[in-house]
Amino acid sequence: MSNQKIPVEKYSTPEIASKSVAKEVAALIQKNNSDGKNTVLGLATGSTPLHLYKELIRIHKEDGLSFKNTITFNLDDYYPISQDDPESYYYFMQQHFIKHIDILPENFHIPDSNMPRESIEIECAKYEQTIKDSGGIDIQILGIGRTGHIGFNEPGSSRDSRTRLVELDKITRDDACSNFNSLENTPKYSLTMGVATIMEAKKIILMAWGKSKSEIIAKVVKGSITNEASASFLQSHPNAKFVLDKDSVSRL
Ligand code: GLP
Fold it and tell me: Which of 75, 156, 161, 222 could bond 151 through an S-S bridge, CB–CB 3.0 to 4.6 Å?
């Protein structure tokens, strides 16, 4: 394990790794709740954060952690897609996290995948402003796509990119295709926070599990910063870390 440009925490399983992340998130919420302050979380979808959400729900139900003073901003969603579509990230978040905790409905934010195309620019700028108005993201949770993307910041996304409409990479659409039955039905576009939006978070935790992520993890942890893999920009964040299992860490 040499030449690492981002701090890495290694765990034997995704469950144990996620419990450690959940503990960290819960501790911040708990502290802010006692200090009468809000906590602002940046959230991700995909299979990677599922254990984290499960554990946070458990802490809420069994240990009484309240999310009443928590504000969340999701990274991205497909565009266009209906919120009732089980493949939409809106639906995913409701099913796997939001409906199980006591967060106020108005404090859950996700880019609106039904907005008309002509409103995208203005609505994306509003999304950025709402994050700023909430005080900025305290902890940003990330997964990583096989193209090295964070959110949907596909290869070519610049360091100063902001919340916007992006065209999905062929590899990303191939990976998502099984959920949409065919490549033809797989969305071609998404709305995503930009690299600059993500980099403004006070703390960033990227999680990755399994052998299929090991190659891209090695590239972004040891390689140079490049807009070919937006996760590599995290090397220049003052408070970012990767939380990995024994398989995703295997090529480091
Ligand atoms: C999508 C999402 C990313 C996510 C990635 C990996 O591309 N936009 O935010 O990190 O998928 O998904 P998974 O966690 O299922 O491997």
Answer: 75
Distance 68 CA to ligand 1 centre (A): 27
As given in the structure block, the two tokens for residue 244 are 């990995």
Mean pLDDT of 77-101: 98
pLDDT digits (tens, 9 = 90+) for 181-232: 999 999 999 999 999 999 999 999 999 999 999 999 999 999 999 999 999 9
Residue 22 pLDDT: 99
Check pocket membership of 144 for ligand 1, CB cut-off 6 A.
Answer: yes
Which one of 3.40.50.1360, 3.30.70.260, 1.10.357.10, 3.20.20.70 gives the CATH number of domain 8-245?
3.40.50.1360
- Tell me, using a 6 A CB cutoff, whether residue 155 lines ligand 1: no
Q: Is the CB of 44 under 6 A from ligand 1?
A: yes
For residue 111 and ligand 1, the question of a CB distance below 6 A is answered with no
Which among 43, 38, 65, 40 is positioned nearest to 53, based on CA atoms?
A: 43
- Domains in the chain: boundaries: 8-245
Q: Which residues on adjacent β-strands are paired with residue 155?
A: none
Side-chain-facing half-sphere of 12: CA atoms under 13 Å: 0
208: exposed, middle or buried (Cβ count in 10 Å: 0-12, 13-18, 19+): buried
pLDDT one-digit tens code per residue, 96-122: 999 999 999 999 999 999 999 999 999
Which of 48, 171, 179 to mutate for ligand 1's pocket (most ligand atoms within 8 Å of CB)?
48
Query: What spacing in Å lies between the alpha carbon of 45 and ligand 1's midpoint?
Result: 6
Residue 1: pLDDT over 70: no
